[in-house]
Amino acid sequence: MTAERAVFPGLRKAPPNSPKVVALLIAEAGVAELEVRGEPLLAHAIRGLVASGCVDRMIVVAPPEADSITRAVPGVERRVPPVSAARADSVRLAFEAAGNCDVVLVHDAARAFVPPATIRAVAETVCQGAEAAVPVLPRTR
């Protein structure tokens, strides 16, 4: 399935007085277009964020090649980092675009298969008063 044919639901329409959640999705060159199960990793990452049901606004920092992927999702904003941008520059560009919000979720497209329930749990933890939350998995051998 190509990115143009991928079907994405829209972002959440937050009820009045609910916390505003912004997702910053960082996709480095080479990762955004890498395909798994016939779709780019970026498409999988976007789908997971949308499926979490807690994201009001999504900002994707990705190379120009990812344009068709981000256009497939209603309401997604895209920023193109400078060609020589370091990872920190991409993250800074995303934060600058976030604007006024209650919760910021920072997500790496290379970790495209984080379950939507995990994304939701992180947002809920911050909404309940934590300054930050980082999901982790138990160490296995």
Attribute tags:
Spore Coat Polysaccharide Biosynthesis Protein SpsA, Chain A; two-stranded antiparallel sheet; disordered N terminus; alpha/beta
List the helices and strands and how they pair.
Layout: E1 21-26, E2 35-36, E3 39-40, H1 41-51, E4 57-61, H2 67-71, E5 76-79, H3 87-98, E6 103-108, H4 116-127
Parallel strand pairs: 1-4, 1-6, 4-5
Antiparallel strand pairs: 2-3
| Structural class by secondary-structure content | alpha/beta
Low-confidence spans: 1-7
What separation lies between the terminal Cα atoms?
35 Å
Count of helical segments?
4
The backbone outline, from C-alpha atoms, is: globular
Q: Please give the largest β-sheet.
A: 4 strands, parallel
Q: Which strand-content bin applies to the residues?
A: 15-25%
CATH overall fold name:
Spore Coat Polysaccharide Biosynthesis Protein SpsA, Chain A
Q: In CATH, what is the class?
A: Alpha Beta
CATH architecture: Alpha-Beta Complex
Strand order of the largest sheet: 5-4-1-6
* Tally of DSSP β-strands: 6
